[in-house]
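Sequence of Glyoxylase-like metal-dependent hydrolase (Beta-lactamase superfamily II) (Alkalicoccobacillus murimartini).
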Amino acid sequence: MSWTQIPLGPIQTNAYVLTNPEGEALIFDPGGDADVLIAWIEENKLNPTAILLTHAHFDHIGAVDEVREAFSIPVYLHKQEENWLGDPELNRSTAFLGRTKVTAKPAEHIFTKEQSLQIGSFTCEVFETPGHSPGSVSFYFKEENIVFSGDALFAGSVGRTDLPGGNHQQLISSINSKLMELPEETIVACGHGPTTTISAEMDSNPFLNAL
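Predicted 3D structure, token representation.
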């Protein structure tokens, strides 16, 4: 399988597209610029099967409805944030974008706990990694050696925790107990900025190595 990082939306949030050899694809966090993402998928002759959301802040959901409708595919989200899609106050678009309100229709599939997830030929583990937001999850694809961490873990940093529902100690606990337990060579596909690896963050992330 292969994956592609595509920064989208008002603050260039990383969307990702994971593709198998048959051209089936999973879309992670389509944060905006739906026309750009849809055109890229069509140009590459891909067949999307689902949208997976690491969490429901506005910059991760801005293109959800247009992409969902373009390819007639379902959306997956954690129960803690199922109401955020339709509420600009909860998804923070009101606070950050003013008059521009970001909303989306309800998700078709709701996670209520950690689980193994199979969508077509794709199989992953869903980890609850709250702290940046209460319903944050990470998607770990063991065979592909990659985890889509949303805004939990970044290259050299961690997600902000000053928004409603954020909790710094909970975030650090989530990272240490879930993500840092993955094999060191695991690629971390972050919600913003470059990708990294578990090994690199173990060695040099100041938030995880503070005395």
